[in-house]
Specification:
Structural class: alpha/beta
Strand content: 15-25%
Largest sheet: 8 strands, mixed
Radius of gyration: 21 Å
Number of helices: 10
Distance between the termini: 49 Å
Bound molecules: thiamine diphosphate, iron/sulfur cluster, magnesium ion
Strand order of the largest sheet: 4-3-5-6-10-9-12-11
Shape: globular
Order of helices and strands: EEHHEEHEHHEEEHEHEEHEHH
Number of strands: 12
Length: about 325
């Protein structure tokens, strides 16, 4: 393992100090679930979210993500409680604001891969705006939306993915608003990796998480995750154990073909599962590094206050 250094700017003299991170043994054992599982999750027994968490632990173990590198961010909701249950760095942030918070981490810490977890309400209602903008900026991170078609934490309100006719506390006579399609929205917003999975197929969830993590850009996963308390049986049609069908994306599908991906996203439920769309495009992360490098070369030797003064003079 090569030594990792961090550049720390000294505010008083403007000098940059390179600090070497502590050297770690070449061969470190992957963390086990026991080492990273925090207090027992407070989800209802049978909630689909347990499965997503278990697979995140598996991913950390399999891909040897070291303790100091685990970064788990979420908004608010049952699904967004996720970082509480991971014994590592993370934040349970403001409702709908997980993505801007995660963006800051991603852009300032290139040595981390940021994972964001949350629900359909957090992602597409209050956080809908941030979802579109983080996707179009192609900021490197993995966003896994645990879609249960309902607001679980606040006890059964209609969510932006609830189907027409769904009876909830906010739609006693059945939902009348057309649901959004997360896959279409992600593709249209500019996400460069868009995949779909379901909590009832653990191997598939892990496969999607690994592929998303390996993608250099904004990777989005819609993971169906049943709310057994307020929307029981919502996804039975996608679960072979409940008489449903789990169809993988056809092998002939070209993941770089945006229109083909959009077509897959338009299939009637249960639709297909797998990677719908994946293209390589420069990330905001790499673009910012280039801008910073070129700007820093123009201010070499100047102190912080001198740089500020220069900027103020330019703005006069
Ligand atoms: C600003 C703000 N508005 C509303 C709420 C109330 N609230 C908390 S979670 C939530 C919806 C959660 O739904 P979802 O993201 O689908 O997560 P789930 O509980 O279903 O996993 C709402 C409306 C809040 N906490 N903060
Ligand atoms: S209310 Fe629903 S989403 Fe929340 S923990 Fe219970 S089963 Fe899971
Ligand atoms: Mg929800």
């Amino acid at each position: 393992m090569s030594a990792v250094t961090t550049e720390i700017p000294n505010r008083s003299n403007g000098n940059i100090t390179s600090v070497a991170a502590p050297t770690l043994p070449e061969e470190r054992k992957g963390l086990t679930k026991k080492e990273i599982a925090a207090d027992h999750p407070t989800w209802c027994p049978g909630c689909g979210d347990f499965s997503v968490l278990a697979l995140y632990f598996k991913l950390i173990e399999k891909r040897k993500i070291w303790h100091e590198k685990i970064t788990t961010i979420a908004g608010i909701g049952c699904s967004s409680r996720f970082p509480y249950f991971v014994q590592a760095h993370g934040a349970h942030y403001i409702h709908g604001r997980a993505l801007p918070f995660a963006s800051g981490i991603s852009l300032s810490r290139p040595d981390l891969h940021v994972f964001v977890f949350g629900g359909d309400g957090d992602a597409f209602s209050i956080g809908g705006n941030h979802f579109n903008h983080t996707a179009r900026k192609n900021i490197k991170m993995t966003y896994c939306v645990m879609d249960n078609w309902v607001y679980g934490l606040t006890k059964k309100q209609t969510s932006p993915t609830s189907p027409l006719g769904f009876k909830s506390k906010t739609d006693q006579w059945g939902a009348v608003d057309y649901p959004i399609n997360p896959m279409k929205q992600a593709i249209a917003a500019g996400a460069t990796f868009v995949a779909r999975t379901t909590h009832t197929n653990p191997n598939h969830v892990l496969q999607m998480m690994e592929a998303a993590m390996d993608h250099d850009g904004f990777s989005f996963i819609e993971c169906l995750s049943e709310c057994v308390e307020f929307y029981e049986g919502a996804f039975d049609a996608s679960n072979p154990r409940k008489g449903g069908v789990f169809n993988e994306v056809p092998k002939s599908h070209d993941v770089t073909d945006e229109l083909a991906a959009y077509k897959l996203a338009g299939e009637a439920f249960p639709g297909s599962f797998g990677i719908f769309y994946k293209v390589n495009k420069p990330t905001k992360n790499t673009k910012e590094v280039e801008i910073n490098k070129s700007f820093q070369s123009k201010v070499t030797g100047l102190k912080d206050w001198q740089i500020l003064q220069k900027n103020f003079e330019r703005m006069k």
